[in-house]
Specification:
GO molecular function: carboxypeptidase activity
Number of strands: 6
Pfam families: VanY
CATH class of the largest domain: Alpha Beta
Keywords: Carboxypeptidase, Hydrolase, Protease
Protein name: D-alanyl-D-alanine carboxypeptidase family protein
Number of domains: 2
CATH topology of the largest domain: Muramoyl-pentapeptide Carboxypeptidase, domain 2
Bound molecules: zinc ion
């Protein structure tokens, strides 16, 4: 009799231990399932936020056209308007005017240096730069000593784009500064900071040469539209990087 009671007790204890073990294991499993479910919902809500944030734009939008050495384009012939003696695509004339006026609040000497340049004009400009470099009267080779055409072209490509590769042919790019020399304006950072308010971005920022193919240019601004300019600035994206996020 005593033995039977002891045996039943042992069985009971074993059953309890087994049951507890089972509860613990199931609990643990359901916890970890909850955790991973939580993680999934966090990352998917991030995805949604990212997409919600992205402007409703397409790669083919007129104000996002890409012209570069990697994406050369033939003569585009935009309809032009003149702002302070500089030609731009007429669709952005009032934005250029407003951006210029706002920049002049920062430095009264701010002025437009260049706007629209046709492919044929760029051709002539580029050839004259190559000639000047070859003759030693160039921007890089100002030594007075002649160099080969090949060397001259390398020099020119550090500050000018070959014809069909300059976005000045779009009429959507302007060069604007308080002085007529590149990367020497003490107001450049302040002017670049207000650009997105008018739909412009500093097109060739520091540290983005791998993306744009062009080193820092403190005076070259590109119109991309208000929403795009804000998004690109907030996310530190060049036009090349931004276009990759958009549908065709
Ligand atoms: Zn420019």
């Amino acid at each position: 009799m005593k033995r039977r009671i002891t045996f039943s007790l042992i069985v009971l204890v074993l059953l309890i231990i087994g049951a507890l073990g089972f509860i613990l294991i199931t609990n643990d499993k359901s916890n970890s399932t909850n955790e991973s479910a939580k993680k999934t919902s966090i990352s998917s809500s991030k995805e949604v936020a990212k997409k919600k944030d992205l402007p409703d734009a397409k790669q083919s939008d007129w104000d996002l056209v890409l012209v570069s050495r990697k994406s050369p384009k033939d003569e585009m012939n935009p309809t032009l308007a003149t702002v302070n003696g500089i030609q731009v695509d007429q669709r952005i004339a009032s934005e250029v005017q407003q951006f210029l006026a706002a920049a002049q609040q920062i430095s009264p000497a701010e002025h437009l240096i260049s706007g629209y340049r046709s492919v044929s004009y760029q051709e002539g400009l580029y050839q004259s730069y190559v000639q000047a470099e070859m003759n030693g009267q160039g921007t890089v080779n100002s030594s007075g000593n002649p160099i080969s055409e090949e060397e001259a072209i390398k020099n020119v490509q550090t500050y000018s784009q070959p014809p069909r590769s300059s976005e000045h042919q779009t009429g959507l790019a302007i060069d604007m500064s308080n002085i007529d020399s590149l990367n020497e304006s003490q107001y450049a950072k302040q002017v670049a900071a207000i650009a997105p308010k008018y739909g412009f971005v500093l097109r060739f920022p520091e540290g983005k040469k791998a993306e744009t193919g062009i080193g820092y240019e403190d005076w070259h601004f590109r119109y991309v539209g208000l929403e795009n300019a804000k998004y690109m600035t907030e996310h530190n994206l060049t036009l090349e990087e931004y276009l990759k996020l958009l549908p065709a």
